[in-house]
Design a protein that fits this description.
This protein has 404 residues and is mostly helical. The chain has 17 helices and 6 strands. α3 packs antiparallel against α6 (121-142). The chain is globular and about 65 Å long.
C-alpha cells in the first residue's frame, strides 16, 4: 500500500498553506492557496455550485427506497428513474415536490461520461436498460411473491435475523442491485470519467476563459463548475458541504461507502486524501495551475476506484462467511450488495490512463459466475474467493484487508 500512503503524505503537506509549483511547459510559477474547507469566493460570493448532483442523489434515494414499498407501482418507479414527464406533468412520484418539478433525471446521467460512453453508445444503452430491467423485475417478480418464502428458483422473502429480505429466484435483492450499481454507473462514472476528464475540464476555450476569470450565468468559470459537479456527486448531500468529513455517511451512495472504507483501520485516512485532492484541485483551478489540477484528478480516480473495489471484496467475503454459517438471508443480502459493487467496477478508472481497471468482459464474467444456475443458492466460498482475489490483485490491497 505504499502508493496510497505516499499520496496521503504529499497531499497533507498542503492542507492549510500555500503551495508553489511550476508549469513544466511554460516555466510559469503558481501560488496555490489551499483553504481549510471546500469554500471558494469571488467578489465575496461563493463560486461553488452542484445543485444538479444533489438533486440526482435525492432522486436515487427515493427510487431505491420505493422499490421495497409494495404500494409502489411500476409507472412511478420508472418515472423516478427516467423523469420523462418532468416539471409539472400529472405523474409526481417523488415525495419531495422540488424533485417532481425538476427536469433532471437519474437515467440521463447513467453511463453518460465523456471518456467512457460518448462513443460507446451500445454499452451505455445496455447499462441504462439493466437498471431499468431490475426495477421492472422487482415489480413483476418479487412483489407478487412478497408473502411467499423464497427457495431455489422461486422469488419471495427470506429471513435475515429479524429482517425480511425480498429476493428474486436466484437470491438477488433487486433494490440492492440498483442502489449499488448506481454508485458506479452514476456517481463514479460522472466523477472519474466525466467531470475530472480533461475532455470536459478543457473543452472549447475553458482553460483560457478560466485563466481570464470569465464567468457565465453563475459566479464561476465553466472549469470551476465542472470540478464542483464532480465534488457534488460525492459530497453534495453532506450536512456541511464545505467540511464534509465531519459527518461522512450523509447519503446512501458513494459518501456512505467512503465512510465505511475510511472506518477500516487498513484504509483509514482515504476520506481525507480524497477531500484534500478535491480541495487542492479546485484551488489549482482558481490559480490557473492546470498541471496541479490534473495531478489531483489522478489521485481522485485512483482513490475512488479503490473504494468500489474494496467494498466489492468486502461484501463477497461477508457473503462467503454467511454461507458457511448457513445464514442464507444474511448471505443473500451481502451478496446482493456485492453484486452491485461488482457491477460498479466497470466505471472505475486507472490513473494516468484512459482505461477502467475492469473491462466489460471481466465484469460480465464476474456477474455470470455469481448468477449461474440457481445464483446465490449455488455459490460457495471457492467461487467468491476467486472473484475477490481477481479484484484485489489489480490494486494495492489484499482480500484479507478488504474483508475486515
Amino acid at each position: 500500500m505504499k502508493r496510497r500512503q505516499t499520496s496521503k503524505i504529499l497531499t497533507l503537506l498542503v492542507i492549510t498553506g500555500l503551495l508553489s509549483s511550476c508549469d513544466k511547459d511554460s516555466g510559469s510559477t503558481f501560488t496555490v492557496e489551499n483553504p481549510v474547507n471546500y469554500e471558494f469566493l469571488r467578489n465575496g460570493s461563493s463560486t461553488v455550485s452542484f445543485d444538479g448532483q444533489t438533486t440526482r442523489i435525492s432522486m436515487a434515494t427515493e427510487l431505491t427506497a420505493a422499490m421495497t414499498d409494495f404500494d409502489s407501482n411500476l409507472e412511478s418507479l420508472l418515472e423516478m428513474y427516467a423523469n420523462q414527464s418532468a416539471s409539472g406533468d400529472d405523474v409526481n412520484p417523488f415525495a419531495q415536490a422540488s424533485l417532481n418539478e425538476s427536469t433532471k433525471s437519474v437515467k440521463s446521467k447513467v453511463a453518460a461520461s465523456a471518456d467512457f460512453f460518448s462513443t460507446n453508445t451500445v454499452e451505455a444503452a445496455k447499462i441504462k436498460a439493466d437498471i431499468e430491467s431490475w426495477i421492472t423485475a422487482q415489480v413483476n417478480e418479487v412483489y407478487p411473491n412478497r408473502n411467499e418464502l423464497a427457495s431455489e428458483g422461486k422469488a419471495g422473502q427470506i429471513a435475515d435475523g429479524t429482517s425480511a429480505r425480498y429476493v428474486n429466484a436466484k437470491g438477488l435483492e433487486y433494490n440492492q442491485a440498483v442502489a449499488k450499481s448506481l454508485i458506479g454507473a452514476l456517481m463514479v462514472d460522472q466523477i472519474c470519467n466525466n467531470y475530472l476528464s480533461t475532455a470536459v475540464l478543457d473543452e472549447n476555450q475553458n482553460q483560457q476563459e478560466n485563466t481570464d476569470g470569465i464567468t457565465g450565468e453563475g459566479n464561476y468559470t465553466t472549469m470551476e463548475h465542472k470540478w464542483d459537479e464532480a465534488y457534488g456527486y460525492l459530497f453534495g448531500k453532506s450536512t456541511d458541504t464545505g467540511n464534509p468529513l465531519a459527518t461522512l455517511g450523509d447519503d446512501e451512495f458513494l459518501n456512505k461507502y467512503l465512510s465505511r472504507v475510511n472506518d477500516d483501520s487498513d484504509f483509514n485516512g482515504i476520506a481525507e486524501e480524497i477531500f484534500e485532492a478535491f480541495k487542492l484541485g479546485r484551488a489549482a483551478i482558481v490559480a490557473g495551475d492546470y498541471d496541479l489540477r490534473d495531478q489531483q484528478a489522478e489521485i481522485l480516480k485512483q482513490k475512488i476506484s479503490e473504494v468500489i473495489a474494496i467494498r466489492a471484496v468486502f461484501y463477497l467475503q461477508c457473503g462467503s462467511r454467511a454461507l458457511e454459517a448457513d445464514d442464507l438471508g444474511g448471505a443473500f443480502h451481502d451478496l446482493s450488495e456485492g453484486f452491485g459493487f461488482v457491477y460498479s467496477l466497470r466505471f472505475t478508472r486507472k490513473s494516468d490512463s484512459n482505461d477502467s481497471y475492469f473491462s466489460r468482459a471481466e465484469v460480465d464474467g464476474f456477474i455470470d459466475r455469481l448468477t449461474a444456475g440457481n445464483g446465490f443458492w449455488d455459490l460457495d466460498a471457492n467461487i467468491l474467493n476467486e472473484i475477490s482475489e481477481q479484484i484485489a490483485e489489480k490494486f494495492e490491497f489484499t482480500v484479507a484487508q478488504a474483508a475486515n
